[in-house]
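Technical appendix A lists one of the benchmark inputs used to test multi-chain prediction within the project. The record comprises three sequence entries:
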Amino acid sequence: MSTVGKYLGLFLGYLYINAKGLLEYKVSSLIALFGSLLNSAIWLVFWWVFFKRFPNISEWQFVHLFTIWAVLNVALTLVSVFYNVYKIPAIINEGKLEYYLVRPKNALFHLLVARMQLIDLLEAAIWFISFIILKPELPAILLFLLMSVISAAIIHGFLLILGSLGFFLKSADGIGTELYNALITFSTYPNWIFRGAAKWIIFTVIPAGFISYVPVQVIYNRAYLWILGSLGFGILLNVIGCVVFSRGLKYFETGNTFVLRAD
Amino acid sequence: MLKSMDKYLAAAALSAKNYLGYASEVIFRSGFLVVILFVFVNLWTVTYSRSGAEIIAGFDLRQMLWYLVFTESIVISRPRVHLKVEEDIRTGAVSYALARPYNYLLFQLSVSFGERMVRFISTLTVGYAVMTVMVRPYFPDLSILPFLTVTVALAMMADLIGMITIGFLAFWVEDVSPFFLVYSRLQMLLGGMIVPITLFPPFLRKLSEWLPFRFMVYAPAKLFVNCDISQALSLMAGQIFICVLLFLIGMSIYRMGVKRLDVNGG
Amino acid sequence: MCIDVNHVSKQYTLWKIKGWTRRERQVIEAVKDVSFRVEPGRALALIGPNGAGKSTLIKLLCGILSPTRGSIRVLGMDPFKDRSKLAYHISSVFGQRSQLWYHLPPIDTFLLLGRIYDIDRVELKKRMKELVELFDLSSFLYQPVRKLSLGQRMRCEIAAALIHNPKILFLDEPTIGLDVVARSMVIDILKDLNQRKNVTIILTSHDTGDIERLCEDVIVLNEGRIVLESNIREMRKNFFHTKIIEIEFAGQHADLDLPPGVSVIERSGPVVKLEVNLKVQDANEVVSRIVAQNSVRDITIQDPPLESIIQHIYLSGDPAGREAEQNAQIDG
């Protein structure tokens, strides 16, 4: 078997076991799904009220806003397939990393595929179907899917970098959570409300602009060049994340680390 | 009657004192508040300037922003008392409370109220600091302060009684969180947390007026930015009515639950 | 040679935060100049109090950590550099940390491990059949792990660790929290594995009973150093300066007239426990003397438990360990 085949096999093995585990705690995951959808619904009502009251506030209408919510949520559910990316600092601090280190597979790949929150894919389906109902045009649907995948890559890379800082900083978990929350919050608002320095921040430190503004530009204004920009940024974040992780791992292994579990 | 309220006041004071130690933690963990306020300042500044309106939904820009700081502080400061009640019912601790000389609902209300006061004041302090930096400071009329304190207290009590009542559903269901989700999301929208209810189109506004949530969030925040004493009095009357109503509903659910416990065993 | 550890030290750097900005560097040496060898097929126990460096040593042997000084060879490989390659040949069980999927039956974890270790289907089926028989898992192979007893779970845990046929098995507190029956079963299986399948076992445990039953060799660590490296049988011989005599008297017994070197350590009704210092007194002589003077219903002579020997080693500290080693050499 080739290396790629082996790793694909590992992914499928975890996909199978996670899917099987899914049936075990149906109720709590369905409640979480319900809560997430309800939360989105309430915000969408707010935006519906907002655009009804201020129809000419910008070139955006309710449909644009719905699109960024849909892209963000589909992207988040895709990130849930690599659910451990949220848990990297905890995995390091609680000594769970060793489980992956004593295995013959790449530790980062292994840990990323080990936990999947597959119930979230149901949410992705709901958002996807509602987008189709709102905009039943094939090019728009395909672009929607593409931009969701790219947005997922950006969120994933962002989390990977922040999480891997956990090798160096004990407080990485807290800081990471704050920055992640900021990313998600900024991604649910139209970009045109940000002025001055904030305009730059959402395309750099907290790349919410790639998740909200760019998909709208691509889907509604056919600004296809932006796709390359977003894709490049997503790849860049993930590459940096991998580098930070492997540097951190070295640091961890040589033991120059605060994670002192001498016993 | 007054004498018997002593123990509840003491419980609230003790809980507040106990929580004081965490107040600094609340302040350091307020990244979310900073982010959401930053977004709100941007959103409404742009909205006011682009639409050219001086007054939107009865608020000018400054009032709108301070209104939102206040509603966020009220909602964020909420302790998870419904989960505490759920746990008490699941573990059977609630049956021990029957043997004690206090009303279980009022006792939980006192304890959570004490905690919430500390959290509310620390959250509001952070919000105030953030807004002072981002916009400019705001000084409400001092004469309104006593009224404001009372409406805030009544608003929180109404909310906490609502949450405890949701906790009581644990006599029948295993997990009360879906009920709380509906409650809190409705409150977020129809209580006026993310936007004043006066912005709503007529049917949503009607709905909001028929529900108790506006007394928990909208009412005190509105008073904070718009000091109108005659309004304050009618508001408080409404809040007291809601508190009593929710208390009666809560107590009857509790009695039914306890009876059920009696029949089916704990 | 299976494991060869040569003058290995492991340091951790700890940053202590003092005040707002000052940070103080503190170096902690978890393992200090440790050397030892393990032949294939042996069973070695690592013992020592908390913080003695047992777990650090195991992590070094698995390649999770790299040594600050010295060299390690495991199955001819450098565990840190060849970690992924070595991983196919070793395995580990950590008592407090499960690798089984809690809500799923153990069989699912076994199948997943097959993927992790690239075992082909035919081979995997064969291995699983063997392990199911060896560990007697068939009755609960398809039950969710959460419904299994702690003992059943630990058997599954060890079976899971063996699915890729490792040559070395590292066990960190495998019997923690188990009741007497379950513990005994786990130890029996491990012993069988060690003796019949020739799997090298490296074990840490707080339970000296486990160690006595399972292991031939023992390394005692204290504060990162090897205090004693010995064969268990030899250790007993060299550290047994005492024996315990338990006597049940038939009726009222007069005040015992005890010779020097004998002391009473417990007294409950007609039963008296004596400790005899063998350097001063012969145990048999003490027994015959007591039997001659009193009417005795029952009498037993026991060795003190391994526990107390280890305690003795710790208490007397490093020099005693050295002394013991020297004694052992002289005796040998």
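Residues 241-302 of chain C form one domain. Chain C has ten helices and 13 strands. Comparable benchmark entries are summarised in Table A2.
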